[in-house]
Amino acid sequence: MIITGLLAVNPYTLFFSTLVMSEIPFMACSLAILYVVALRPDHPGRGQLIIFTILIIFLPFLRTIGILMILSAGIWAVFRKARWPWLIGVSGSILTSGLWMVRNASIGKSGYTSIALGELQSQGIAGTLIRMIQRITSHYDHLSQQLLPNMPESQPRYSALILDNISYLPGPGRLYLFLAAMLILISIYGMLNCRRQGGMIALGYLVLSLAALSLWPWMQPRFTFPLIPIILAYLPAGYIAFANHFQFSRPLLRMALVGACSVIVLYFVSIQIKTDYQLIHANLKMLSDPRHFYSHQMPGSSFSHWTAAGQWINQNSEAHSRIIARQSATATTAQRYQKLAFFDVISAEKLHQIIQQFHANYLVTLNKNHGLIFSWYLLDEDLVYHLNPVYDEQGVMVIKIEPNRSGTIREKYYSADESLILARNAYEKFPHRSYLQSGLAGELFNSGHYEEEIEFIRKLQQNNIRDVNLSFLLGWSYIKTKQYEKAIHEFEVALSTPGQKLIRANLLQGIHIAQQALADKYNTDPNQSDSTNQSEEKKLKSATQYWNNCQINKLERYLIKSLEAGELQPEFHATLCTLLAKVHLVKNNKSAAVEQLNLAVTSGGSEASEILKMLEREERVEILFKNIQTNHEVKSEHNSADTLQDVLTLAEWYQEFGVPGKALDLLEQANTLIPNQPELLKLLLQQQLFYSLVTEADATLKQLNKLIPEDSQLKEAAREVEELQQLPRF
Length: 730
What we know:
Subcellular location: Cell membrane
Number of domains: 4
Helix content: 55-70%
GO biological process, one term: lipopolysaccharide biosynthetic process
Shape: globular
GO molecular function: pentosyltransferase activity
Radius of gyration: 33 Å
Membrane topology: Multi-pass membrane protein
Keywords: Cell membrane, Glycosyltransferase, Membrane, Transferase, Transmembrane, Transmembrane helix
Structural class: mainly alpha
Distance between the termini: 43 Å
Number of helices: 34
């Protein structure tokens, strides 16, 4: 009963039982198998065998790792003739699981064995062994945290579903790692003492599970959680067997020891019950009054209601729409094709590629209250798409992807300091919440407030608030302010902080960059000319990166600063002036753009001359369109041919410039004014497919089939339209 109670109040039990996962049923099935075996291990009855067979066949379908329980039971049964009847259930389970694995292989699903062999081939024996040791260490950390919840120097998974900070157990984390090891050893001792009652099955399953997890690339706490009830089940037997070796001659000493242990257990249980209450209280608040909860409680990202966003998409979008989201639950309620993406680690250039490859129509992400989880400037500065927020509720934002037909930026949805203001307000309201502390620190760094960032994190550290992410941001803030020695020290401190494994590579990179900067600081370059060329190349690379990622306002400030810096090489000056002209064009400031282009031409810029020619062509096409619309220009075949050629040339240039939406808009206008032109329609169809305008592309395709039915390219376009019209099956 005590063990059952400990498992019941464990916050991980509450956490996993409320998710759509198989951990809790799998744990119950595993314990039931061990219980059935323990009733009568030798010469089992018919009823026992039937129940055992049903349970052990069902177990691997809950979780594949259940196969290891089958193997352990088979090994245990085969060495004693009185246990051979158990092999009936084991054989049936192996046969069923084998057929299921064959079925998965036939449809191309990757299995555990293929993944393990693939890693062995790619890493080699030595590399695989090193990674196995690293994984075992991580899984032991997870197992320790699940045996002793709220362990200090840890960040439990369930802490993200609590509004305020959790109460940690007192003392250093290493003490609890040692206690967890002692509990596991006592449990193993209990298994050995109960080896005739299924203890050897449990021990074999424990060893095989850890061995298998050491080869599995993914490391999640839920993988080790089903081992907890197995360990707890044999803990009393191990304790009794271990206690029998010690005899206390004085009853008073024995009573004192029992009393001390009881107080420790009660304190431990009270901490867990408090955490359970926090979990339940926060979730009840969210369910009872969601509007007030999201607007006033400033919950973390784990409270975001992804399924509600999916329901909105289901009701407000076309059935063939496709979505890119950072949470798979959205697709279930949206009933749409979905691709998973984490927008906080994807550049604008990469995001464009993903959208184009998947033909997405919507992005689903956490909203602005969660800070740096999306490149919010793209809402206004994206040159390829207009990313329009159409849903913003319960922590989730749905963004509709539409063509940027003007090819310019806007000032509508994004403010440079908006995320920082939200983070400040949230932190001032709940300064004790760790996720809001990290959120404000991240926003300060992203906004370039490095001095304030340093002061803020140092203040937190003085209050004994230490976190690896805060140390990481502090180290980079020192690098930005050229305090390289302090940066190295902070990164080294972070390497010894709990949770550093996930960002260890980034911490080592920070140390390397700081050390390199220190070396460059004390070394002078004798060849000043080479140094200048390298500096210009670096500036040009940065400017090009800003342009590719649509950071238009940041690029403008960078270019103006670079041009005002002093003497520049003519070629480099022309390139910067041309880039600044492009910035003025996408900001709809044509006169300033022409001025910069003329400066670039003076410095010998060939690209600037080409842009000036295209601007003249653009003006000519605009005049022709106006004349056609007002019937001042006769719609002769000759005039139409000249206009068509100008339109096609201009549309292709828009695409090369990086504003394909403007090409789409031009082609749509031209198709209205100069209809039934196959060459124009083919280019229009290409742009419509680029933007996943399925209905419009289908109409254009039908028009082309009437004009040029023999064109072979239309079959490929028809196939693509048909693919985009396909609906997912749920």
